[in-house]
User: Which sequence fits this backbone?
């Protein structure tokens, strides 16, 4: 009965549409990028049953998801959280996506519920993420009166300053006119939120002055790091073959 | 790719040992029964790797579990939360265990971490629950500054007063002497917490003066409801064939 051969199989109830087209650039925690947006519509067999009824009125939901982009089945039992700069913690004392069962847990802010569709913000999930469950945020169950967050408390996330170069700003205007960017302020703020968290893998951080790109809502945001800050140097519609630096990071 | 035939398979990393021997009596949310205790040890293949290292220091963990006792694969798309007395909500706007993917999410208080074993309290999970994942509670990700809990906010859980009859109190003393109850106060408080939430199914609530039992940590707690309060009338070691009323509820 208790053998580890027992396994449980789950079928996604929805797949997320997210501003994060690629894993690279997706924040480690969605709350750090409040301008991120995502939506989901229940899969056909769960529609027209009122399964999301009364979710209106809740401010937040838990999205239980699958880290489906983890193709590597081997993962370390201990990880180096970026902000601990070298110190290791057990993988189950972290929120790393590389864990025994690649199940994700994200608190998302509800923007709107309409029939079988849910719009949320503040997500850390990439386009196409399989959603296994949606649960309302229940303060009485989910909000301890007193708490401590261990190693994560002592090591706050760094925030890297970020500015748009005038050329990049002009390109944003063009994309707004062309209808490729629908909400200018939200887009600019999202780009700044994502870059502020420094999405570059540790191995990339030594490469000062090299341009890399994150893809946000179908738009390539090219940035460069120098003197402790990011500058967005170009903003253009995403094209997969376009930017070698960007692609090489995306594949990590 | 996005077909609903895609399914994901997960293998438990541990199985919970809980004071709740049976589903009946297990609180709907563990935070309401702070005297409940549980522990888990990682399955053999995950041991001796330090996977829980640095979990010390966190106050709480999320346990992602499987509602393995849901044998009925049919479930209603809308449910009647006990405290809403008749009004329905969509199953995904509730924390009902009967949902498309029977995945549970429980915030538990960490009592102690020792190697590959974790002791927690405030759980709402039954003995033997398969645990798929353990994640540290990260305030920055899991604690919204502002929030509302929709229908659950407007309808607080009722708390039914509960007292031990003198005979039951004497039986507790006996079980303490016999080593069947290790911590007297914790046991009595847990029994009161569980009964305060009124574990009886709605269909049972009309049966005043009928004795029923909850099984806590291998001990049968027999109680009776009358005049708006529970009285614990007997406390004895659990024996499966013993109490018809208790068993008939347990099978619901």
Assistant:
């Amino acid at each position: 009965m208790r053998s580890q051969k027992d396994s449980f199989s789950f079928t996604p109830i929805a797949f997320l549409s997210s501003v994060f087209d690629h894993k690279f650039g997706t924040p480690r925690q969605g709350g750090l990028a409040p301008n991120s947006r995502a939506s989901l519509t229940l899969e056909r067999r769960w529609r027209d049953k009122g399964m999301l009824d009364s979710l209106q009125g809740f401010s937040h939901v838990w999205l239980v998801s699958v880290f489906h982009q983890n193709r590597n089945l081997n993962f370390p039992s201990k990880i180096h959280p970026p902000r601990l700069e070298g110190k290791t913690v057990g993988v189950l004392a972290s929120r790393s996506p590389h864990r025994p069962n690649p199940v994700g847990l994200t608190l998302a802010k509800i923007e709107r519920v309409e029939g079988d569709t849910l719009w949320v913000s503040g997500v850390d999930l990439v386009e196409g993420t399989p959603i296994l469950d949606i649960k309302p945020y229940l303060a009485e169950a989910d909000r301890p009166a007193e708490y401590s967050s261990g190693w994560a408390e002592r090591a706050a996330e760094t925030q890297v300053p970020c500015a748009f170069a005038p050329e990049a700003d002009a390109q944003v205007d063009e994309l707004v006119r062309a209808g490729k960017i629908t909400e200018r302020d939200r887009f600019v703020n999202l780009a700044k939120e994502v870059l502020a968290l420094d999405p570059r893998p540790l191995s990339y951080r030594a490469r000062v002055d090299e341009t890399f790109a994150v893809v946000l809502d179908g738009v390539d945001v090219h940035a460069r790091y120098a003197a402790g800050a990011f500058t967005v140097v170009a903003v253009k519609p995403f094209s997969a073959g376009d930017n070698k630096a960007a692609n090489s990071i995306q594949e990590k």
